């Protein structure tokens, strides 16, 4: 209990980004959300706890960066000299980008706990946590460690205006991904985690020539799930081939995102929260 009180004491808001299935764009969404908040003038941390598939360092062109220690703990890797976006990922701790992380539950839990307690974020407006898909060890461990900070934040709410944090659920419009996110929704309800809303990613393809949007997959699954679960629907992000290409080459991702259709969706989300 005493140990838990120290968790993220200088972070005003914590958002988890969840999805029931890999490959739906959870890391992309986490990164876009962090960039949008940074562009809106906030100090942001991006924590990648996808221990088995950390992709954020590559997306942000930080693959060759490594984490340093200071007296207060691990120092995040910053994307700009003004230190407005700090990133921490297991990817920074691997000797080689292709090294697999094959850890069993207790080791994963210990690593997550360390990520939550031993990173020296300094003062943050927002911490975005990119989680692995599913409702596995990683989620339960994060929930256990965050419970108290959620409580602390609610407590602080009594004294000054602090927005409540929670989870953003990412899905693609197809039924399978939506079915998986339904399980995530149940997980959130069971663990008492507030659902900020559902975001539908890779919904339609905007033709770069005529700007017409074609719905390659089925349409509206995320929105109807939001209605069913009585949680907010945050919007739709189309497939943007420029973003796919840029995420392979981090240097361009930030620029590609600024000019993308997705950027407007995120501006609207950030305005609300
Ligand atoms: P997850 O974290 O859910 O496993 P990622 O964020 O790694 O998924 O995305 C999987 C792949 O899909 C990546 O290659 C990424 O660039 C691509 N992707 C995600 N969202 C979009 C989008 N809206 N438009 C185009 N490509 C996308």
TrEMBL record:
One of its GO terms (biological process) is iron-sulfur cluster assembly. GO terms for cellular component: axoneme; centriole; cytosol; nucleus. Heterotetramer of 2 NUBP1 and 2 NUBP2 chains. Interacts with KIFC1. Interacts with NUBP1. The keyword 4Fe-4S applies. Keywords: 4Fe-4S, ATP-binding, Cytoplasm, Iron, Iron-sulfur, Metal-binding, Nucleotide-binding. It comes from Daphnia galeata. Belongs to the Mrp/NBP35 ATP-binding proteins family. NUBP2/CFD1 subfamily. Gene3D superfamilies: P-loop containing nucleotide triphosphate hydrolases (3.40.50.300). Its cofactor is [4Fe-4S] cluster. Component of the cytosolic iron-sulfur (Fe/S) protein assembly (CIA) machinery. Required for maturation of extramitochondrial Fe-S proteins. The NUBP1-NUBP2 heterotetramer forms a Fe-S scaffold complex, mediating the de novo assembly of an Fe-S cluster and its transfer to target apoproteins. Negatively regulates cilium formation and structure. [4Fe-4S] cluster binds at residues 207, 210. One of its GO terms (molecular function) is 4 iron, 4 sulfur cluster binding. This is Cytosolic Fe-S cluster assembly factor NUBP2 homolog. Its main location: cytoplasm. SUPFAM superfamilies: P-loop containing nucleoside triphosphate hydrolases. InterPro entries: Mrp-like_CS, Mrp/NBP35_ATP-bd, NUBP2/Cfd1_eukaryotes, P-loop_NTPase, YlxH/NBP35. ATP binds at residues 20-27. Binds 4 [4Fe-4S] clusters per heterotetramer. Contains two stable clusters in the N-termini of NUBP1 and two labile, bridging clusters between subunits of the NUBP1-NUBP2 heterotetramer. It is found in: Cytoplasm, Cytoskeleton, Cilium axoneme; Cytoplasm, Cytoskeleton, Microtubule organizing center, Centrosome, Centriole. It holds the Pfam family ParA.
């Amino acid at each position: 209990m005493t140990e838990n009180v120290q968790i993220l004491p200088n972070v005003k808001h914590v958002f988890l980004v969840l999805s029931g299935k890999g490959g739906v764009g959870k890391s992309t969404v986490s990164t876009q959300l962090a960039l949008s908040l940074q562009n809106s003038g906030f100090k942001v941390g991006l924590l990648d706890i996808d221990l088995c598939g950390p992709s954020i360092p590559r997306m942000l062109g930080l693959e060759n960066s490594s984490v340093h220690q200071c007296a207060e703990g691990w120092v995040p890797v910053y994307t700009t000299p003004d230190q407005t976006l700090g990133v921490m990922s297991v990817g920074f701790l691997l000797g080689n980008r292709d090294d697999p992380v094959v850890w069993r539950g207790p080791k994963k839990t210990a690593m997550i706990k360390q990520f939550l307690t031993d990173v020296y974020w300094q003062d943050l407006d927002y911490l975005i946590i990119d989680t692995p898909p599913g409702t596995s060890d990683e989620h339960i461990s994060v929930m256990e460690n965050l419970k108290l900070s959620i409580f602390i934040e609610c407590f602080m709410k009594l004294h000054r205006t602090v927005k409540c944090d929670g989870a953003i659920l990412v899905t693609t419009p197809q039924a399978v991904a939506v079915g998986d996110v339904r399980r995530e929704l149940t997980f959130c309800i069971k663990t008492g985690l507030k659902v900020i809303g559902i975001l539908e990613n890779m919904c339609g393809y905007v033709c770069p020539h005529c700007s017409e949007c074609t719905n390659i997959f089925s349409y509206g699954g995320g929105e109807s799930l939001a209605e069913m679960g009585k949680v907010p629907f945050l919007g739709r992000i189309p497939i943007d081939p420029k973003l796919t290409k840029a995420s392979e080459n981090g240097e361009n991702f930030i620029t590609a995102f600024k000019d993308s259709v997705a950027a407007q969706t995120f501006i609207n989300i950030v305005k609300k929260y």
